[in-house]
Write a structure and sequence with these properties.
Layout (H helix, E strand, L loop, with lengths): L42 H17 L3 E5 L3 H16 L7 E3 L11 H9 L4 E5 L16 E6 L11 E4 L9 H9 L6 H17 L13 H6 L2 H16 L5 H10 L10 H17 L5 E2 L5 E6 L6 H9 L9 E6 L6 E8 L12 H9 L6 H5 L3 E4 L3 E7 H11 L9 H6 L5 H9 L8
Parallel strand pairs: 1-2, 1-3, 3-4, 4-5, 7-8
Antiparallel strand pairs: 6-7, 8-9, 9-11, 10-11
Helix pairs in contact: 1-2, 2-4, 2-5, 2-8, 4-5, 5-7, 7-8, 7-9
Length: 441
């Protein structure tokens, strides 16, 4: 029998209670003037998206689906594909455009590549939420943006449905599913698991499906959560590799009848093994902290997109009263650039007011009076308040780190200064290095 820990006086030590963290859906949704819940997006925007898809299917013209590279974007894209074919659009008229490594749909090269496919209808999912010219140059082409990333600006002349301002914010796969479900009776049965995969891919495998999220009991009866979660891991793996093999994930997902069919896919399995090894190789990088202790920064150098995975892991392990944000910066993913991912530390998720990564990053950049915000570019502080990051020039990133005072010792409190500093600093440093001794899972 194990003895209970006691202090010097012999009293039994009580365990520190774990900080309570609200479930994702435990937020107050926005309401309209009649007190009705607005979710996952305004109904007029949802109806406009449905009208677009009906018109697209009826037109029987070239259609281009442009999904983002991750599980959420790819699952949303396949939902659109299956809905359009269920509505009668010939599969031969549907093409997909997968954006190249480090690029976005607003880059001129990407716009030219999309235009070369001569689409008359373009459906962009899980990306595209920033201002810019029309998605493609053809004035006769019509575009639809389905997204959930924080933005009030979008490409010109696009039909837009965004979930970003309507908590609990739906993933793009969930938003797409809710748009498409009323359009055909087969969508719920054939796309429910795609909705679950995309949602778990963005929000985590322990998500509790509470209202206003839909009741997915039928989906989870037909497909086990384990199969769905394993499939998410496999679909995310190819795009994380150095070859940025998004095509393999798209093709596998498009042709699989269910998540179980993905579990033995050779290319997906090989990609996941490759990424697991790369994560294990870099996940032990030691963190450095901003002088105020609010930000932890880990630096890696990898041609694989493992920085988001490592950021999520460290965010779940590092803890202090001051810590809010964990940043993993990858200087090896693209030449001359730093790709970085930010996550809210688990210990800070219940803070009031809530941590806003995008606002925090922009506030740091605004400390500079020489135009750093412009040097960081349009791909800085993108995504969500809870999970952001960017792709920025290496020199500008170093300026950002200098403004955060990363690696600088905090100013000693008067009492501590009188005592010659805090005791136990070396012990704390060693503990940080030991967080991942058991290896990546």
């Amino acid at each position: 029998m194990k003895r209970k820990a006691t202090d010097a006086s012999g009293a039994v030590k009580s365990k520190r209670p774990r900080e309570s963290i609200a479930d994702y859906c435990d937020v107050e949704p926005r309401r309209d003037v009649r007190d009705g819940i607005i979710w996952p997006a305004p109904e007029e925007a949802m109806d406009a998206a449905r009208a677009f898809l009906r018109k697209c299917a009826a037109a029987q013209q070239r259609t281009l689906i442009v999904p983002d590279k991750d599980a959420d974007g790819l699952d949303a894209g396949v939902i659109v594909h299956r809905t359009l074919t269920a509505l009668g659009l010939s599969p031969a008229l549907i093409d997909v455009h997968l954006v190249k490594k480090g690029a976005n749909i607003h880059d001129e090269q990407e716009r030219a590549s999309m235009q070369a496919k001569d689409p008359k209808f373009v459906v962009v999912v899980d990306q595209g939420s920033r201002s810019g010219p029309p998605v493609v140059a053809d004035e006769g082409a019509q575009s639809l943006i389905i997204d959930h990333h924080l933005s009030d600006d979008f490409p010109q002349h696009a039909t837009v449905v965004s979930a970003c301002h309507y908590p609990p914010v739906a993933t793009s796969a969930l938003l797409t599913y809710e748009i498409c479900k009323p359009l055909h009776a087969d969508v719920a049965s054939k796309c429910g698991y795609l909705c679950a995969m995309g949602t778990h891919g963005d929000l985590g495998t322990t998500l509790k499906w509470k209202p206003p999220f839909p009741d997915m009991a039928d989906t989870f009866r037909a497909h086990s959560k384990k199969a769905i979660n394993d499939a998410v891991s496999l679909i995310n793996a190819p795009r994380r590799t150095a070859t940025f093999d998004v095509r393999s994930a798209w093709d596998a997902l498009l042709h699989a009848p269910d998540p179980k069919a993905l579990l033995a896919h050779p290319r997906l399995l090989a990609a996941r093994a490759e990424i697991n090894a790369e994560v294990e190789r870099h996940t032990h990088a030691p963190p450095k902290f901003s002088r105020d202790g609010r930000i932890a920064v880990l630096r890696i150098h990898s041609t694989a997109q493992v920085h988001p995975v490592i950021a999520t892991r460290w965010a779940g392990h590092l803890a202090s009263k001051a810590l809010e944000i964990v940043i993993v910066a990858n200087a090896g993913y693209m030449p001359g650039m730093v790709n970085f991912s930010c996550r809210i530390a688990r210990c800070a998720r219940a803070r009031d007011p809530p941590v806003d990564i995008i606002a925090a990053l922009k506030a740091v950049a605004d400390l500079d009076a020489t135009g750093l915000a412009q040097r960081l570019g349009d791909s800085f502080a993108r995504g969500h308040k809870e999970a952001s990051g960017g792709i920025v020039p290496a020199a500008a990133f170093e300026e950002l780190m200098a403004l955060m005072k990363v690696g600088e010792k905090p100013d000693a409190a008067p009492a501590e200064a009188a005592k010659g500093g805090r005791k136990g600093t070396a012990s704390q440093k060693n503990n940080l290095m030991n967080y991942f001794r058991k290896g990546a899972s």
